[in-house]
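Quick note —
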Amino acid sequence: MSKIAVVYWSGTGNTEAMANAVVEGAKEAGAEAELFTPGEFSGDKVSEFDAVAFGCPAMGAEELEDSEFEPVFADCEANLKDKKVALFGSYGWGDGEWMRTWEERTKNDGAVLVTESVIVNEAPDDDGVAACKALGAALN
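Predicted structure written out below.
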């Protein structure tokens, strides 16, 4: 059974809803999945899991949330080489540039992106929830 961490930051609840769907999808696929906020996770914990899903909405000029999420993700980066990773998040404007930048950064860390990242505009609809569940299942 795969052990999966789902680490997310959410300001409005949209990315939190996505994170819950990722956990649900992972569990439905037979994995053990745990949900973490940035304050509950660190780079040291990465090795305890077979895979990690990171979720963060677009903030500012299409960038990761910089006071809580960014420092934790940066702390994890040194431990992502060859780790199965998936990314997700919501946005309210722009065209998804923050996710493309984040994907490239994660690949440069040596992580293995196991599936296409999931981005949704505002709150996830039924299709967005289904995509998040599939992302969780892909980590198994």
